[in-house]
Design a protein that fits this description.
Rossmann fold; two-stranded antiparallel ribbon; alpha/beta; globular
């Protein structure tokens, strides 16, 4: 029986992939997993999926004709999610710019290295339009925005930005403990759009360390989860809620 989700990338289940795999297992999603070093084959696309996920998975691992098959499935109503990383978007070896999948993200993807790393605070904040969106609703983006450590720099074209990464620099702590600084950049953190009957989502930071930063611990409570064949994870409840909402919306399962 074909699983609802095809998840490709994030090295392997013993490493970074344990985060998304654990969250999907906890939520009851069925998925097939393909590690980053293994190319996608026509066998994995033999039956339609509800959602295709690429995260730190190089475009070179998906032949153009197979990418076109996925685009056709998205047109018919499947979801497509790309999560940021060194081998996502352009990255350092992702090279999704100009590909059939890259073209339906609704983003201008760089033709050169688009990685951004930040040692200073980089807050993940919501756009005004994000307040009632099913992916972002019900989370304290204003009262308690999480931090991230890195992201891919893109420019939305037709996609709607929902989250912004605001990087601050020249930060100082005063004698009374107050943090001050100036905003250096405001880059896209999350963007969505429709393609035919399908939904396309781009998250520009990562789901796993190190780029995920403090976002992985976002929340006042802890959530533990474990996928078969993967180590257990422990994350913040707001982080987990965000990803569950994102998966549900992408795969049209929010009802």
């Amino acid at each position: 029986m074909t699983a609802d989700i095809l998840y490709c990338g994030d090295t392997d289940l013993s490493g970074a992939a344990c985060y998304l795999a654990g969250l999907m297992t906890h939520a009851g999603w069925s998925f097939d997993y393909l590690p980053s070093h293994m190319p996608l084959t026509s066998q994995q696309l033999a039956a339609p999926r509800r959602l295709y996920i690429f995260s730190d998975y190089p475009a070179a691992q998906v032949q153009p004709e197979l990418q076109q098959q996925i685009v056709e499935q998205v047109t018919l109503g499947a979801g497509l999610l790309m999560i940021g990383g060194w081998e996502s978007f352009h990255g350092l070896g992702g090279d999704w710019d100009g590909t059939p999948i890259g073209k339906i993200l609704g983003l201008q993807i760089s033709t050169g290295d688009d990685r951004r790393n930040s040692s200073s605070p980089a807050l993940l904040t919501a756009e005004v339009a994000a307040g009632t969106h099913p992916i972002t609703q019900g989370l304290p983006w204003t009262a308690s925005p999480p931090t991230v450590g890195g992201w891919n720099l893109v420019q939305p074209t037709t996609a709607q930005p929902l989250l912004t990464i605001r990087q601050f620099g020249d930060c100082r702590v005063s004698a009374d403990g107050l943090l001050t600084g100036r905003q250096l950049a405001a880059d896209c953190g999350l963007a969505v759009q429709s393609h035919g009957q399908g939904r396309v989502v781009s998250f520009l930071s990562d789901i796993a360390p190190h780029w995920v930063g403090g976002f992985v611990d976002w929340g006042e409570q802890r959530v533990t989860a474990q996928a078969p064949g993967a180590p257990a994870i422990e994350v913040g409840n707001w982080y987990a809620q965000f990803w569950w909402q994102l998966l549900n919306w992408s795969a049209r399962a929010e009802s």
